[in-house]
Every structure is written in C-alpha cells, then in structure tokens.
Write a structure and sequence with these properties.
alpha+beta, Ribosomal Protein S8, Chain: A, domain 1, 3 domains, 5-stranded antiparallel β-sheet, 19 helices, 36% helix
Length: 606
C-alpha cells in the first residue's frame, strides 16, 4: 500500500513553525501511454512545470509514473481535469509538524516494503499513523511571484467554511488509516480482499478526499485574492458588536415544547444518554407529549457530509459531551434573541463573556494600585462556551405539534363571518440555532501594530451572530405564543454541584408559564414524573438520599424566590415502612408563585 512521503517546505515567517507537505512516492507502473491519453491523462514535467507539479501534489491529485522504454527514467501523468484545476488554483495544502514528529528527518518515507507493494495495487493512499496525526490543510502555500514564489496562508483566514471542509478531510484521512489497519489485519487474505471490494471502497474514499482538497484549495485561493470575505492582515483587529445585558433580574424567553425537548435531551445526555438512539443514521432524542413530538437530532455541520461509521461515531462523541451547560447557553441565546436589538438582516450578537456573566461565572480579578479590577474570564470557561456553540450548530429539531390556528370561516350568510379557533398539525425541520458569523479571540489582539501570531487551533471563538431556527415562529405570536419569565438564578446554579436545583428551576420556569393560561400559577405535579423528565438520578439502594436531595432542592428554589411555596398534596397516602420508594415517586406536590411573579407569567394580550 502506498502511503506517501512528507517533506519540509520551509518556515512560516509569522508562526516560526516548519511547514510540511505530503506527496506520494515515485512508484513506476506498467501502462500504455496511448491508452492514458485516450482516458484523458496528460504528461507533466516536474522540472519544467515545478509550480504546477507541486500544486498537483498538494491537492492530492493521483499521479502515475510511466517507465520509459529508452532508459530507466519515468514520466509523470495526471488527469487533464486535475491539471486544469491546478493551473487556475495554484495552492498547495500543507501542515505544521506536530511536536511528537519533529525528530523526523527532512524527508521521511512511510512506504511499506517493496514486497508489500508488489502484492497491493498501487494507489496514492493517505494512510498511516504519521499523516493521520497531523492537521492536514491547516496552512497552505499560495503561488505568488510578488512574494518570492510561495506565500504561507493559514486556515484561520477562511472562517467556518474552511474549517468545516478541513474537518471533513481529517475524518476521511482517519478512515483511510482505519481501512489500512483492517487490511493489514487480514494479511493472509490480502490478495483476495484488496483486489476486489476494499480497493474499490478506498478508491472512492480517496477520490472524495481529493475533491475536498480541491474545494479547500479553491477557498484558500479566493480568500488570498480577495474574491471572498477574509480576515486580511489590515483588518485583523475587530471591535466586538454591541451585546446589551438583557437578563438582569429577569427577561422573557420562548417556552414552547421544542425548547423543553432540547433541554431534556441535553440533560439526558449528561446523565448517560440512555434515551438517545440512532434514528435515520444520526443520534436522536425523541420527546413525546400529548400535543406532539419533537425529535432532537445531532447532524454534521455540513449537510453534504457522508454518514459513514467515522462520522456517526464523531456525532455520538459530541452527544456524550453535552451537559446542562449547553442548556444554559441555549437559554441565554433565546433570551438575547428576544430582548436584544436585531440588525438589518434579523441577526443578533452574543459573546462568551456575556453568557458567562448570565451564568454567574466570576471573572478573574487583579489588584492594581491597591484596587481590584476585572481582568476577563478564564480561557477554559470561554472555551467551554465555544464548545457548546459548536455542538449547538449540529443540533437539529423536527417538530410535529398540534397548535391553534385563527382562521376566517364564512357562515351560511355571506354577510357574516366569524373567527373560530381550530387546530392543525404544525411540522417543521430546521437547525436549532443558525450561527452566521463568528469572531475569534486572535482577531481582537495586536502586538506592535503587527498581525497576531496565534495558530488557528489555539484561537477561541468569543462572539457569535445568530438567528433562532424557523421552528420558533408560531410560538411567538397569537394564540400559540408561549413565553416564560426567566430569572437569572436559573442560569446561576452550578450545573454539576447543583444539578437538581438547576433542572427543577428550569422545569418550573416553563410549567408555571404553561399553567398561567388556566387562571393561576399554582400547579400540581407527580414527583416521579418530574424526576424522570429531568433525568435526575434515583438511588435505589438508599432512596432516602434521593428524597432528601429532592426536598433540599425544592427548599432552595423557595429560598431563591423561584417558587413562593411548595408542599406535598394532603391526600397522598402514608409511606410504608419498607420499600416506600415507588409510593413516594407517585406523590403529588403543589407549587405556587407569589403575586409578584404572577404578572411575569401572564400571557400577552391578544
């Protein structure tokens, strides 16, 4: 199996890191030149067409080396369409050498033995632990005569689109490496396996990788030429957009069933993801209620991504990282979208700092001249928010819910018409949140008037422009308007040490609002159903710990004025002396809100 070679190009003048590129080794093949021409292959001279040849290598084009009859030299052939593409897009994808590989020589072959090559069809396969462990495509060499030949250009200038393509490429590289290990483990069946199905699969996978490389190269080229939006060296310094503080003592947030479904899905994922399942090849959480169903799905950020095993495993890995912090970030974004001013394209901005402030996360405080000053939030806290935003971009919801519809219906008399409330099944499928623009930390820093030297993998996203998905539209107006009054304390509870308080506070925030249309803010709920809804743990061996933890959390909510009072219903049966847990889980509790809170939960006048 041909795995290629990696060779140093030089040093990046900005990052002072070594830039390496990958290329297949020269392995002569016995093919007919006339047949290659008929199949639209053309020869290329590496000596006379050095820039073009290096571009072909850097875009992972397949190159065939034909032996010449007259001597022992070889002639390079490439597909005509690849040559045309490389001629118009002179970009070589490359990478910075990781620390654990820096002891390698300037040109290190990772090819198998000659004996192995003889048994395996020759293909330029990108496999092997060496290449699979690098960030291929994180930097590119762009042909620029004015810059002395080649100019290094980094992935961070391409924005989210470039990062998404590069991540797709890395997944394909990883899968090729997995395929290689599988092939080696079946070595005694090598001839039969490699000459049939597995070769065809790898050829198809490599073709996709090559196409992704061309797509990323084109994005590099357009960005470098200024043909698409990019962060240039003269515009690296950006000003954060205005992000007003809207939560304060409280604010309005959308409170329909889909929001509750996503929060339940995130909490269940933190509790072990027992209620998540694979549906239509993607991780899915199904939230069923009397008036409808919401499917919370985790999909690739790029809809064109092939759902192979590697991609599906990556999605499940992200699901297992979900937590109540993701829920807090979602609630903060919903609050911001309702209360903050929108731009001319109906977008709104939010920052990582603002989300941390909403959650009550304390910033670093430094003492200067005897006074404390705010020095910003910790990098790890900002990174947690950025990770939540990334996962939220992969969250899709499918809503199937019965809602009211006010329509004009004509009666028997044409001169009279009346408005009759009717219900219809509302169905919608969309992203939970549409993130349209991102500002990263390196864009806000400058040293001695020069562009920052941060590597893209070390930068942190700190601000996002976004829109709530179209699923929310019917729940913000008319008879279906469902909003709740959010108190900041709901976001301030610690997601790990105060899990019970946080989830119960969210639950009553939404359920108090739902009940308000029925004439008050006194509701009655069953203990076990609340615990199940919120994916809270039940200690079967020591149920008294569960009961005390629940009561402690409810008392805390009352002390924090999230509820005014809670009591067990008077007609609950006495608990048996033994095996009383099932009885207690069926206990009903009554929860009330004070008149001061009632006004916050009243529906909008229609």
């Amino acid at each position: 199996m041909i795995t290629g070679m990696w060779t140093i190009w030089g040093t990046d003048p900005d990052t002072h890191q070594e830039i390496w590129y990958w290329h297949p080794p020269i392995v002569p093949v016995e093919e007919d030149a006339e047949q290659l021409r008929a199949d639209k292959w053309v020869p290329v001279d590496p000596e006379q067409q050095h820039t073009l040849f290096l571009t072909l290598l850097g875009q992972l084009a397949e190159i065939r080396y034909l032996k010449k009859d007259a001597d022992d030299t070889v002639e390079a052939w490439v597909q005509q369409e690849d040559m045309v593409y490389a001629s118009t897009t002179p970009v070589v994808l490359a990478f910075y050498l990781p620390e654990h590989l820096r002891g390698a020589t300037a040109s290190s072959s990772i090819s198998p033995s000659v004996a192995d090559i003889a048994d395996v069809p020759s293909m330029p396969l990108l496999v092997g632990d060496t290449l699979a462990s690098v960030q291929f495509g994180e930097v590119a060499l762009v042909a620029d005569p004015s810059a002395g030949g080649w100019h290094p250009y980094r992935l961070q200038f391409l924005g989210e689109e470039g990062l998404a393509i590069q991540q797709q490429m890395l997944r394909e590289i990883t899968q090729l490496e997995v395929d290689a290990r599988t092939s080696r483990s079946h070595k005694r069946f090598k001839t039969r396996l490699l000459k049939s199905y597995q070769v065809a699969v790898r050829q198809e996978r490599y073709l996709k990788l090559h196409q992704l490389a061309q797509k990323l190269a084109e994005l590099y080229w357009k960005s470098y030429q200024g043909l698409s939006p990019r962060t240039s060296t003269t515009s690296l310094i950006r000003t954060l957009p205005e992000t007003p503080y809207v939560v304060g003592k409280g604010t309005i947030i959308p409170a329909p069933q889909p929001v509750q479904a996503v929060l339940a899905a995130y909490s269940n994922a933190q509790a072990g993801a027992e209620d998540w399942d694979t549906i239509k090849s993607v991780p899915t959480f199904v939230y069923n209620k009397e008036n409808g169903t919401t499917h919370v799905e985790f999909r690739p950020s790029d809809p064109s991504t092939q759902l192979d095993n590697a991609t599906i495993q990556s999605l499940w890995s992200q699901v297992r990282q979900l937590s109540d912090i993701d829920g807090d970030v979602l609630i903060a974004m919903l609050a911001q979208a309702i209360a903050a001013p929108h731009d001319e394209k109906d977008g709104v901005w939010i920052t990582g700092k603002l989300i941390l402030d909403y959650r009550g996360i304390s910033p670093i405080m430094k003492r200067e001249n005897g006074k404390l000053r705010r020095a910003g939030h910790r990098q790890e806290d900002l990174a947690d928010v950025a990770a939540c935003m990334s996962r939220m971009s992969n969250t899709w919801i499918r809503v199937e819910q019965w809602i009211e519809d006010d329509r004009e219906h004509s009666g028997r008399s044409k001169s009279r018409s009346k408005k009759e409330p009717k219900t219809y099944l509302y169905t919608r499928e969309s992203r939970l949140i549409n993130v349209t623009d991102i500002i990263r930390q390196h864009e806000l820093q400058q040293i001695n008037g020069k562009p920052p030297m941060e590597q893209p993998q070390n930068s942190i996203a700190i601000a996002w422009r976004y829109q709530v998905g179209s699923w929310v539209e019917p729940f913000l107006q008319g008879a279906n308007r469902q909003v709740a009054w959010l108190l900041q304390q709901v976001l301030s509870y610690d997601p790990y040490h105060e899990t019970w308080e946080k989830r119960l506070a969210r639950y009553f925030t939404f359920h108090m609002r739902i009940n308000s249309t029925k004439g008050g803010v006194i509701i009655e709920r069953e203990v076990g159903k609340i615990i199940e809804e919120l994916s809270l743990p039940v200690n079967q061996r020591d149920p008294d710990r569960t009961r005390k933890r629940f009561e402690k959390a409810m008392d805390r909510l009352q002390a924090d004025l999230l509820v005014s009072e809670w009591i067990y219903a008077s007609d609950n049966p006495p608990l048996p002396k033994r095996k009383w847990l099932p009885t207690w889980l069926q206990y009903r509790i009554r929860i009330a809100a004070t008149s001061a809170l009632q006004n916050h939960y009243l529906p909008e006048a229609n």
